[in-house]
Design goal:
Distance between the termini: 42 Å
Shape: globular
Number of domains: 1
CATH class: Alpha Beta
CATH topology: Ribosomal Protein S5, domain 2
Strand order of the largest sheet: 1-2-3-5-4
Radius of gyration: 18 Å
Number of strands: 9
CATH superfamily: GHMP Kinase, N-terminal domain
CATH architecture: 2-Layer Sandwich
Structural class: alpha+beta
Helix content: 25-40%
């Protein structure tokens, strides 16, 4: 297998193992407990976290202890080249949005000790302002920053005595495009990919979720190993970017 980091340059000049430029603009939503605007290449997602001092009814009925984390995700009508109708205009959330918001919720629940959170619910809202591939991975990566900011505020306000975060979490896309394994696909690469995969990982190097599919194609063990290697490297870059974004925030 050839050195994946020295693969030919892509349309935007990146190496196969290189993520797009990433930037966080924290406290973008003043009324949220924690928020950030993640700018990842041309993808823009606002991630906001609010706290409700109660838990869902099903937890009370089942006698479940601790707190809960749940998420909502939406793409704003002007986030894509052609206007995307709001879910409310169709009377129900579309299947893709539902799948992604559940993924965000699962990812953040893996980051938190729900017992230490106490009897409260964390609401995560991710709104895509501009989509150029990787909106779900941007939502997860940005949400971790917003969540950390929100929990810091709870601690500062005396509502929590210790930080319930167990692990940092980030997510990245990988895929096979024209027979090559690439990390962090932009939109043009995503639509051309023979294989599309999303990895959600913790700072311990453990997987939370792997979503991988051959788009009218198959992939080999060697290609899978190459994508997983690229994904691990991409997540390390993202975790480092998250740390920088949270310094002094």
């Amino acid at each position: 297998m050839s050195d994946i980091s020295s693969a030919p340059s892509r349309a935007d000049g990146r190496r196969a193992d290189q993520i797009r430029p990433i930037r966080f603009q924290n406290h973008i939503a003043p009324h949220a407990t924690g928020s950030t605007l993640i700018e990842w290449g041309q993808t823009r997602v606002i991630c906001g976290v609010t706290i409700e001092e109660s838990v869902p009814r099903w937890m009370k009925e089942q006698g479940a202890t601790g707190g809960w984390v749940t998420a909502e995700y939406s793409m704003l009508p002007y986030s894509t080249l052609q206007r995307k109708a709001r879910d409310i205009s169709k009377g129900k959330i579309d299947g893709r949005s539902q799948e992604i918001q559940r993924l965000i919720g699962r990812s953040m629940r893996a980051a938190i000790d729900l017992q230490k959170l106490g009897n409260r619910t964390i609401w995560i809202d991710c709104d895509v302002l501009q989509a150029d591939g990787g909106t779900r991975t941007a939502a997860i990566t940005g949400t971790y920053v917003a969540l950390t900011l929100a929990l810091r505020k709870l601690i500062a306000d005396g509502k929590l005595t210790e930080n319930p975060i167990a692990n940092a979490v980030a997510a990245v896309s990988v895929g096979i495009v024209n027979g090559e394994a690439l990390c962090d696909l932009c939109y043009t690469e995503d639509v051309a990919a023979q294989v599309d995969m999303n990895l959600v990982m913790t700072s311990k190097g453990e997987f939370i979720e792997i979503q991988g599919t051959g788009e009218e194609s198959t992939f080999t063990d060697t290609q899978l190993a190459a994508m997983l290697s690229l994904g691990r490297g991409g997540v390390r870059q993202l975790l480092a970017a998250q740390e920088v974004a949270l310094v002094g925030a």
